Each structure stands twice: as C-alpha cells, then as structure tokens.
Amino acid sequence: MKKVYYPLAGMNYIVDDLAKIIENKAEGKETINLWLSAQVNSFPHIGTLTNFISAFALAKHYEEYFGKPVKIIVELLESVTGKEEIINNIRYYTNSEKTILDSGERVKDKYFPYFEELLERLKKLNDVDYEIKFFYEYQQDPLVKDALIEVIQNTDKLKNILDPKKGEIRLRFGCPKCGLTEKHLVHTKINSISNDNLSLSSYCPNHGEFRININKDSNDTFDMNVPLRYLVKVMYFIRRNNLNNELNVIVDGGDWSGMWPLRVYMEPLLTLGYTESPSVIYTPTILDWSGSKLSKRMYVGNEAYREFLKEGLINYSEFYNQYGEVGFERIYNEIHEWIKDPKRFIRDYTIEYMDAVLRGEEITKLN
Ligand SMILES: [Zn+2]
Could you tell me the distance, in angstroms and rounded to a whole number, from the CA of residue 87 to the centre of ligand 1? Predict the structure, then answer.
C-alpha cells in the first residue's frame, strides 16, 4: 500500500490552522473575499479543480472560524490569448473573446460553461456564494485604473523589476476593428499620463493607428501581462481593503509562490512606498511525474500528457467519463481533509497521487 508522509516545511512550522495565515489581517474587517483567477482559454484541469475546491473549502472554514461573511470572487480572464500570429515579424494575439474556432464558436464560449458548472457545483456543496468578474468588468473599477496609472507613472522605477528581460511594462490593447494586439510593445506608446488619465496609441497592420484612454469614466478595454496584472491587483486590494473595511485575499496555485511574489509585488510595493502587504493563500500545485507543474496544453503543446491515458485529469470535459461522480466526491472529500490540517495543505501533490485518490485506491497517511 502507498504511504504518504507530511514532513514539516515552511509555513507549517508556524501555523496549526489555515485561518492563522490571515487572522492578523482579518481582525476588525467586516467581510472576507477570496479571489480565484482562471484563463478562459482551455478546459479546467485537475490543478484548476484543486484550486477551486480548496478555495470553497477555505471559505467555509473561514466563515466558521471568523464568524464573518466570506465570499468567493472568480476573476475570469477573457483578455488572454485565444490565438497568436506573426505579421511582419511582430507577434500578435487575439483574445479569447475575439478568437473564433473552426466550429464557429468563440474560445471564451467554448470553455466558460465548464468553469460555471464547476462553480455552481461547489456553491451548492459548500453553501458558499461566488461572484464571477470578467477581467473587462474588473478593470472598469476606478480603483483598478488608479492603481494601474500609479504603476505606469512609475515605469522607470518598476520596469526592470517587473521585466528584467526587456524592461517593458506590458499594458496592451487590441485593434477595435479586428482585435489584433501586440504581444510586446513595438508600436504601443504612451501619449500622455497624469494622475487621472492615461492616453495610449498602438498600430494594427490591417487598420492603422488606434488610441485608448484610461480614466475613471473611460470604457476602453485593455490587457495587462501577468506580472503587471498581479501588481495592479494587489495595489487594488490594498485600496479596497481600506475603503470597504474588508479583507481581500488571493487564492492562487502554489506555482505562483516563492520568488514570484517577492519580485513581482513586494519589491514594487516597497519601491512605491507602500506600508501594507497583500494577503495570499497558495493551494497545492499538482505536479507531473517529473516534478513540473501540470500545465495547460495551450502552453506545452496539444500532445502533452496524452501518454498518461488519463485525459480526465487534463480536461474537465472528460473528468466524469473517466472518474465518474464518485471521483469528484473522492477528490472533494480529500481536499476538505487538507483544509483541516495545514501539513496536508501547504505542500504539493503529483498527478499519480491525485489519480490514486480519484480511483479510490487505499493510501496510508502517516502524520
Ligand atoms: Zn485591426
């Protein structure tokens, strides 16, 4: 029989309950929001499931522990790449809303129902409410724009922290006619910036120059690359925590822990003179046999992971065919066990382990 060990590591030395991670910051706050985030350009996989089930279980636990309302906010990124192409040696993408598949469907519409089904299921099982915030809706919040403008105003101080490779702060936006968006900032330029308005221009190979404005009344949409999006988000959280007397917490996969938060938001926050830090909880990362994060096929190629013959792990549309409802129950119960014991939660798991749980294999857990 397989045996699992739980050696103490990192945070496990200092917490005996996952509520302790945010307890000091939750004090005096009226509500707690746990923020999930996902790209709507591929099927949820076992890593997404782990992250989502964990967040709902944490919400339930925090509600009981703190005696305050806890809500899940799911940030769904429709601004992300639906497809990429190279025109005149410049890399462009169109987002998941503008990219049409051969079937005639938009990328976003193909994948969104799977996220919704999973969220509805978790809402009912946990009796925890959630709210979906698409990125284009989220970015209209004046506090988000305010944070973004602060970052762009400090481009010189932040560009090499956020992007040591190229020194770019990648705020991008697509052609209003066809959606083509530069991946890197070749033609995208800042025309003017003040405390309350940012004016930018870019160029489409098919339709010529186009411009947008970002200010508290503007409706123009934009995209941010991952480090910029993270930094703006934590600056937004700090603003929102104070304004609404609430605690906003990122619930992210563990692959975003480690050097990333130190570099991508703690260093910039200190550089900008902030005296508050964001709250983040990392859920276990699901690793492949080699110890690498299980990725979306979009990023590692369409043939990836097919050798395992475990399509249900990679593709939620196949999950129930492979593991059935009982599989979902097993993984749901397993993750709810993790939440009770930080040693089981603050660590990673492999796809072999998850597969064993889903199949109901007996495992000896040695505390
Ligand atoms: Zn165009």
Answer: 12
CATH number of the domain to which 116 belongs: 3.40.50
* Cα–ligand 1 centroid distance for 249 (angstroms): 38
Write the single-letter amino acid at 127.
D
- Average pLDDT, integer, range 317-327: 95
User: Distance from the CA of 124 to the center of ligand 1, in angstroms?
Assistant: 43
Could you tell me which of 57, 127, 69, 75 has the C-alpha nearest to residue 245?
Answer: 69
286-320 confidence digits (pLDDT tens): 999 899 888 777 777 777 777 776 888 988 999 99
Q: How far is the CA of 187 from the centre of ligand 1 (A)?
A: 13
Structural domains of the chain, count: 1
For residue 109, what are its two tokens?
């519409």
pLDDT, one tens digit per residue, over 80-136 is: 888 899 999 999 999 888 888 899 998 889 999 999 999 999 999 999 999 999 999
Nearest CA-CA partner of 177 in 105, 101, 233, 94: 94
Range of the domain at 143: 2-366
Q: Are 53 and 122 in contact (CB under 8 A)?
A: yes
What pTM did the predictor assign? 0.94
Q: State which residues have CB under 5 angstroms from ligand 1, the bound ion.
A: 175, 177-178, 180, 204, 206-207
Could you tell me which of 336, 334, 289 has the C-alpha nearest to residue 308?
Answer: 289
Q: Cα(180) to centroid of ligand 1, in Å?
A: 6
Report residue 317 as tokens: 């549309």
Distance 111 CA to ligand 1 centre (A): 25
pLDDT tens digits, one per residue of 166-190: 999 999 999 999 999 999 999 999 9
